[in-house]
């Protein structure tokens, strides 16, 4: 977490970081702190680790003016990140990004999809598998399917085996997800098409604008490998797959598709209650149909992340975007 107050200090994470996505958060933290410091804010870098008492003591004793919140998990569970934002609410401290309800909803992927469908937002057909006794597979599901943990983000749990072609492979993958991640598995129809994402950024009136549409290209993906952004491709720099998922912004798509993507992104952001900034991931099939995969609150905003690539394409800098996000939280100071 990044906190602005009168006395600068540094409270680094106490545990050894072994996860590449966690290391990315630490690097992001330092870049954000520099951007805020250069803009005249005094900054404390603070990590709650898995110590909720430490977090509560820090909030109570330091009483930060505003928090730049990039918490992605606590107590080893992504789904608990909403509770950290809820603590800020209880301490009556303003913070950047989405509120607890939106954070929780986004990490309940099956529930978020139900919200999309209720609001007429297209999303792939899907089924949730809970417990050891599986329900019958929905006969309306069409293979191939992609299977993922229902409570994770950052491509955690997604690898080349996440795509399944039949029921036997589906059951094997579901059992793997349940055992490895101790949570239900979500299976959804795999849209074998182009991967787009639309970053959204709130203006001073709280209304979202869309940044230029981005695309993750798979032109360099080895033959036979599924066209997905796996954990390895996203985070493991020494992996051959790391250089096979390249970002292009603005995406080379027809203007009518770009306009539809932006419209759907705004509707999806509103449906799940995103605030300040976010990113909506979607797929474009061969027939020109768009399907929302996820709406991401508090997405990665490190300097080389897709969100910042879109921000720079819009004419913003990393520093100006970070401070624009902070301004929204400052406007909410009680």
Instruction: Count all strands and give the number.
Output: 15
Uncertain segments: 1-18
What would you report as the Rg, rounded to the nearest angstrom? Answer: 20 Å
- How far the N terminus sits from the C terminus, by CA atoms, comes to 20 Å
* Main beta sheet strand tally, sense and closure: 6 strands, antiparallel
The coarse overall form would be globular
Total helices: the number is: 10
Class by alpha and beta content: alpha+beta
Please estimate the helix content: 25-40%
Question: How are the SSEs placed, and which strands pair?
Answer:
Layout: E1 2-4, E2 9-11, H1 20-38, E3 43-46, H2 52-62, E4 66-68, H3 81-90, E5 94-95, H4 100-106, H5 109-118, E6 126-129, E7 145-149, E8 163-164, H6 167-181, E9 185-189, E10 194-202, E11 208-210, E12 214-217, H7 231-235, E13 246-248, H8 255-272, E14 277-284, E15 290-297, H9 306-313, H10 318-330
Parallel strand pairs: 2-3, 4-5
Antiparallel strand pairs: 1-3, 1-4, 6-9, 7-8, 7-9, 10-11, 10-12, 10-14, 12-13, 14-15
């Amino acid at each position: 977490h990044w906190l602005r107050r009168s006395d600068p200090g540094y409270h680094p994470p106490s545990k050894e970081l072994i996860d590449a996505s966690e290391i990315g958060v630490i690097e992001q933290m330092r870049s954000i702190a520099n951007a805020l410091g250069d803009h005249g804010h005094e900054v404390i870098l603070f990590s709650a680790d898995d110590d909720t008492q430490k977090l509560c003591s820090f909030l109570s004793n330091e009483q930060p003016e505003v928090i730049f919140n990039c918490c992605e998990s606590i107590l080893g569970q992504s789904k608990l990140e909403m509770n950290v934002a809820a603590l800020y609410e209880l301490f009556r401290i303003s913070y950047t990004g989405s509120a607890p309800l939106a954070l929780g909803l986004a990490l309940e992927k099956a529930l978020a999809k139900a919200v999309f469908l209720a609001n007429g937002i297209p999303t792939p057909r899907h089924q949730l598998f809970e417990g050891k006794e599986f329900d019958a597979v929905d006969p309306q599901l069409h293979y191939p399917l992609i299977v993922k943990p229902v409570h994770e983000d950052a491509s955690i749990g997604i690898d080349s085996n996440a795509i399944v072609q039949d029921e036997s492979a589906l059951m094997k993958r579901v059992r793997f997800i349940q055992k490895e991640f101790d949570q239900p598995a979500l299976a959804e129809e795999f849209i074998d098409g182009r991967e787009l994402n639309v970053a959204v950024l709130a203006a001073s009136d709280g209304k979202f604008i869309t940044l230029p549409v981005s695309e993750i290209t798979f032109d360099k993906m080895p033959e036979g490998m599924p066209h997905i952004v796996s954990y390895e491709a996203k985070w493991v720099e020494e992996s051959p797959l790391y250089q096979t998922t390249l970002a292009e912004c603005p995406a080379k798509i027809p203007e009518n598709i770009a306009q539809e993507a932006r419209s759907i992104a705004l509707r999806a952001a509103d449906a799940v209650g995103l605030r300040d900034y976010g990113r909506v991931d979607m797929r474009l099939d061969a027939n020109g149909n768009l399907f929302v995969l996820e709406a991401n609150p508090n997405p990665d905003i490190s300097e080389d992340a897709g969100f910042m690539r879109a921000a720079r394409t819009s004419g913003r800098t990393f520093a100006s975007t970070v401070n624009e996000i902070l301004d929204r939280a400052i406007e909410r100071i009680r």
